[in-house]
Amino acid sequence: MAQQLTLDLLPPPPPSLDNFVAGRNGPALDALRHCAPGRAVYVWGPHGVGRSHLLQAACHHAGGLYYPAAGSASALHALATGDTLPGPLVAVDDIHELSADGQAALFALYNRWREVASTRQAFALVTAGDRAPLALELREDLRTRLGWDLVFRLEQLTDEERARALQSRAADRGLDLAPEVISWLLTHHDRDMSRLSALVDALDRYSLARHRAITLPLLKDLLANNRNSEHT
């Protein structure tokens, strides 16, 4: 079973469009990189595919506002109906988890997005969920609006793509990860790329602190020490 490690002292880097490992998701990444005011993008896929990474990165890239589904529905509704302009981009994450009030707020936001799309008040609207629009258990008028512009299904990275991403991450730090280290990580560890990247960073620092080369025994030693620290 994959080990779920927090590595609290070595968090992953902040999400950005540059550190998103695209794999087969290049078109979605490109659409978000060039998402101009007046456009809307809906991305969907299973947990761990990078939905939240992309939405937070798009907000950082454009100077936008990020709203998780667990956030305040009233704040989202105020944004949709208030006099204040939403800004260049608004992202609403995990819409499949929205409450009835949250769905009503997002419905109002879509309406405002469409009303001002060709004006100086235009903003980009980016949303994400775990299923295709018509498969979501949301109010029908909201599901329809999700397909008004661009829709992308996000695909999981293959093991080969993860391996290349880990090698690239290691190379950026001047490291050369042995194939058996990468194979062990992909087989036994959390498969989320942000957590895998954080572990590579941790392994680099641990190697320097212990004055030891990066090997599979060193990796297992790091993970064992991390587990011990979580229980003390």
UniProtKB/TrEMBL annotation:
Return the InterPro entries for the record: Hda, Hda_lid, P-loop_NTPase
- The Hda lid domain, residue ranges: 159-223
- List, alphabetically, the SUPFAM superfamilies matched: P-loop containing nucleoside triphosphate hydrolases
Pfam families reported for this sequence: Hda_lid
This chain's protein is named DnaA regulatory inactivator Hda
Q: Which organism is it from?
A: Yanghanlia caeni
